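Quick one:
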Amino acid sequence: MTNDNEPLVSIVVPVYNGDAFLSACIDSILNQTYSNFELIIVDDGSMDSSLNIAEMYGQKDKRILVVKKEHTNAGDSRNYGLDKAKGKYIAFLDCDDFFEEDLIELKVKQIEKDEADICASDADLYLNNQKRYEKGKLLKKYLIPSRIPFNIDFCPADIFLVIGTGPWMCLYRLDFIKKYGLRYQSIERANDVYFSNMAFALADKITIVDKVLIHHRVELTTNLQSGMKETPDACIDANLATKEGLIKYGLYEKAFSAQVKYSYYYICSVAERLSQNDEKEILFKRIKEGALEKLDIPRYYISTLETQINNPDMFTVGSRRGLLLDVKRILDLGITNDSIAIMRRYYDTLKHIDNKYQQIEYAKTFFPFESVRANSRVILYGKGDYGQQYLNQIEVTKWCNIVGFCDREAGTFVENYKVFSIEELKTINYDYLVISIYNPVIAEEIQKELENNGVDKNKIVYFRHNREIKE
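Output:
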């Protein structure tokens, strides 16, 4: 029985040839503990029995509105449902998923309590062929700020990675969506990227229900993600539209790091799933035409992606991608204490994902850009792994000019750079000597040795990588 004292929730479910799972989806919605909702089922010109199933349910329950349209795409169908919605809140659910009975109740309570624009929850994966559940790590808890509710100001470098693109994981306040005129893109695939990411960027408050409430069915041949190969370059169009939206609302500078990282990860994930050469060629052609430069992805990672497209076996560790994406923010927007703190916090976060990932080393060796003037002449003390990581970052960003290395093992070369002794520094013109040693005890001993041998202490730069970063 409907409780009219509770706020109305509009639930939009687009359907296209989804008769195999539509009944399970509708049943799990009708069995919700929260009863004051309208279910808007939008049939996108299905050629199976989806429309008949929806209409059968509609005849039995007055809360169900069934509408049909000519086939275009799920983006248009969601927009159609959005235009019909009358609720205070709106959810967009997929017709092949199914849900916990307290999905709507818990989200309404949380979004009302925090007076938020968006409420997200966790989800797991249901492997349809294997008939089993698998934790999907869809809600990235390690990226969620300690303060909830939050917004882009609390995690500007990761705002689009908290849930990835999953509007079906969220409950939205409808007047918030209408205030900004947010719409799904009318494209065959990836039509939810713009809507989801722009909503997260614009929201004043985002809150969380830390519970698996949605079972996302995978291993299908009919859902949107499984058909990505038909339009493999839609991922580029979706992210270009998001960039334009962020610029329109004056948020591109703030969301730059998150947008570039998300674009790169998303395009890589699409490339990972392409199995046929003709599919790869469609995406690769767009890359060669400069699409990734338009997304501000650094040239270094564009060439890496080109290699990965041709060698799909390289996609075994997804989190290795894009380790220096944040550095692009330095080049385009300039160094600030906030941007450096954000970038270091991002690399610190990567250390906790999985000990086998290379980010552990990269996280320890982020070059101290904030202490080195652009286009200055730099000597790196330490020709080991950390020094070479500094060198890699400098060569990628072209932030400063490397004169050479300094090390106790003088007289050798690191790539084309000579390794000088401390005594030889007196004859060399340089602006900074950056100590590229991770161990702080050893680094401090080296700093004293340098000063004792006449090196100007104002030219010595050392960043203690294990210190706490505060904005």
